Structure formats: C-alpha cells, structure tokens
Amino acid sequence: MGEMPAACIGVATVGELGVFPWYLAAIIPALALSPSAFLLAWVTVPPVSYEVIDRVDLLGVWQPAAWPVWVVGLAWVVGLSADLVLMLRACMIRWTISSRCASNER
C-alpha cells in the first residue's frame, strides 16, 4: 500500500518537464512512506536547471546550457533502474521464500 502514493505522484509529475523545483516539495512526504530512488532524483535534481539565471545576471543573455537536461535525464534513468532492481530483488526473495515453503509442505 505504501508504494501506491509514491508511484501515482511519480507518474503524475513525470510528464511535466517544465515543473518548478519548489512544486516537487509535495513529493517529499511520499518518499517517507515509500522510498524511491526515482522520486528522490526527481525532487533533488531539477534545481540544476536554474543555471541559466547566473548567465542572465552576468551577461544579460538567456541561453540555457544543455548539461542540465542531461543531468535530469541521467537522474531519471538511474533512479528508475535502481527502483527496478530493488523491485526485482524483492520479487525474487518472495518467490524463493514461497517456493521453499511450498516444498516443505510436501
């Protein structure tokens, strides 16, 4: 049951690429209920997209760099991969335990 709120919030926010970082603060309580590497990355990495503000302040030019997009994308991939690995590991453990219990009952 604890995994559902985090998954729903993650699915709802994944499609929104132009989200302001402070909007993601609402996800933090869901992380306490259901830890997720993807949601942790999604909450912590978007502030790097504000690097363009320094360039505007110094040079007066709005020209976002490409590296923040790559950092956010990499964080998503690593977070999703970590969550999938942990989920598969948990399924394997449950399967092993259930197969041992079934073999002991025979």
Care to describe what's here?
The protein is mainly alpha-helical and 106 residues long. The protein has one domain. Helix content is 70%, strand content 0%. The protein has five helices and no strands. α3 runs antiparallel to α5. It is elongated. The model has no long low-confidence stretch (mean pLDDT 78).
Write the layout of secondary structure elements.
Blueprint: H1 3-14, H2 28-33, H3 37-44, H4 51-59, H5 67-105
Helix pairs in contact: 3-5
Could you name the key traits of this structure?
106 residues, mainly alpha, elongated
The count of helical stretches stands at 5
Determine the fraction of residues in helical runs and give it as a percent range: 55-70%
Total of domains: 1
Number of E-type strands = 0
The profile of the biggest β sheet is: none
- Whole-number mean pLDDT: 78
Gyration radius over CA: 19 Å
Nutshell version of this structure?
This protein has 106 residues and is mostly helical.
